């Protein structure tokens, strides 16, 4: 985004890979093999991970021949090239990485899954998934071990086998990008109704909350899946603040918040969820119920993990009314996300949310704030993303004209 980023070692190689210029990328690696060890300053990624993510077999082959470290992990996500090859679903790339010794069992920090989990569970690659089942078969043939999350798509017997080997498996959690879901949450999210009773039989907690504050029942309600809702209630799931929030039953939500003291982390999760979804009517009851207006939850801003406030999430999603309600309740306009992290103004500007930008500027947002990854201001985020109307607003704000 900035000159320092553009001039970093290997930047031309990363750009060629991103643009899909395979011949140019291969030529660069062959001319300068040391580029195989370059790191992208934004994500701490490697050319091998970039190329595997995009299924670029010739580039992957050239990088491995040049000595690229097949075990190298991206700083932002702790993923390996094999994670991305698995998620992208390109068997030839995965096979080549395995032939060079790629490890089968490392878990990333975003989803807390192995490459097999990325083949079967994660849905990330914007280019589409080419043949993920074939990659999963390849990984299993190479000795990849099942966990409770990879077993779920394979059926009930696979789930039983994993739980028999590890009775605590049903309590395991995915990573923060998946809101720390349990297997029961994942089964609900993927519509695997036939797995629900078995998971509860094996000890799954029907009242466990995700990082978004959702129980499996609340998640089923959010999906509008009446069959799963009925089944979960039959398995003992009870309504709580989360289900009242999802269904919009504010009176019940307020009563529960008054009568049943809630942990600060859950209150923060519900406030974040309401802000993210623009549920203005729920913000007041949650704040009166004890939620801290500047409480932080862990999210990805772009591809950078950050501890963000509810205001960040309202700004990212373009919910101006929610942003104004949070500001009226005393939210810090620059988000208190920590030194060098993007402010709500960065997030709103980069996404082109004019009304939110106006609201933040009217409340004194810092137009000169610089985030740490690129050293960029909100104006530079807007310009980089082609948000011309927002850029004009920010230029006026920077000149004291707003």
From TrEMBL:
A Pfam family per the record: Ank_2
Q: Which SMART domains match?
A: ANK
Specify whether Disulfide bond is a keyword of the entry.
no
Judging by the UniProt lineage, the source's domain of life is Bacteria
Keywords tagged on the record: ANK repeat, Repeat
Q: Which InterPro entries does this UniProt record tie to the protein? A: Ankyrin_rpt, Ankyrin_rpt-contain_sf
Q: Spans of the ANK repeats?
A: 43-75, 77-109, 179-211, 212-244, 306-334, 343-372
UniProt xrefs under SUPFAM superfamilies: Ankyrin repeat (SSF48403)
Supply the name of the protein.
Ankyrin repeat
**Organism annotation:** Nannocystis exedens
């Amino acid at each position: 985004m900035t000159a320092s980023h553009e001039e970093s070692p290997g930047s031309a190689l990363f750009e060629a890979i991103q643009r899909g210029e395979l011949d140019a990328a291969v030529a660069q690696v062959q001319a300068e093999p040391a580029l195989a060890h370059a790191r992208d300053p934004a994500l701490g990624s490697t050319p091998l991970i970039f190329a595997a993510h995009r299924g670029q077999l010739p580039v992957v082959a050239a990088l491995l021949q040049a000595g690229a470290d097949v075990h190298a992990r991206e700083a932002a996500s702790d993923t390996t090239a094999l994670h991305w090859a698995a998620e992208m679903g390109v068997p030839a790339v995965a096979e080549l990485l395995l032939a060079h010794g790629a490890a089968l069992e490392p878990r990333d920090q975003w989803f807390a899954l192995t490459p097999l989990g990325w083949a079967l569970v994660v849905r990330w690659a914007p280019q589409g998934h080419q043949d993920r089942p074939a990659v999963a078969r390849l990984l299993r043939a190479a000795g990849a071990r099942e966990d409770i999350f990879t077993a779920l798509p394979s059926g009930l017997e696979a789930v039983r086998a994993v739980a028999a080997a590890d009775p605590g498996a049903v309590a395991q959690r995915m990573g923060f990008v998946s809101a720390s879901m349990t297997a029961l949450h994942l089964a609900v999210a993927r519509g695997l109704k036939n797995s629900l009773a078995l998971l509860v039989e094996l000890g799954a907690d029907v009242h466990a909350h995700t990082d978004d504050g959702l129980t499996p029942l609340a998640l089923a309600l959010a999906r509008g899946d009446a069959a799963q809702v009925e089944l979960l209630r039959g398995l003992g799931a009870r309504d709580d603040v989360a289900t009242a929030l999802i269904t919009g039953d504010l009176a019940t939500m307020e009563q529960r918040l008054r009568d049943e003291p809630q942990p600060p982390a859950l209150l923060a999760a519900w406030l974040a969820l309401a802000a993210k979804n623009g549920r203005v009517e729920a913000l007041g009851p949650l704040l009166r119920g004890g939620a801290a207006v500047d409480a932080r939850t862990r999210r990805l801003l772009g591809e950078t993990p950050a501890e963000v406030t509810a205001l960040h999430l309202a700004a990212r999603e373009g919910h101006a009314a929610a942003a104004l309600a949070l500001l009226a309740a005393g939210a810090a306009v620059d988000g208190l996300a920590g030194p060098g992290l993007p402010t709500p103004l960065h997030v709103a500007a980069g996404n082109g949310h004019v009304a939110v930008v106006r609201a933040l500027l009217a409340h004194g947002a810092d137009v000169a704030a610089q985030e740490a990854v690129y050293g960029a201001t909100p104006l530079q985020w807007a310009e980089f993303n082609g948000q011309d109307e927002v850029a004009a607003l920010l230029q006026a704000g920077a000149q004291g004209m707003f």
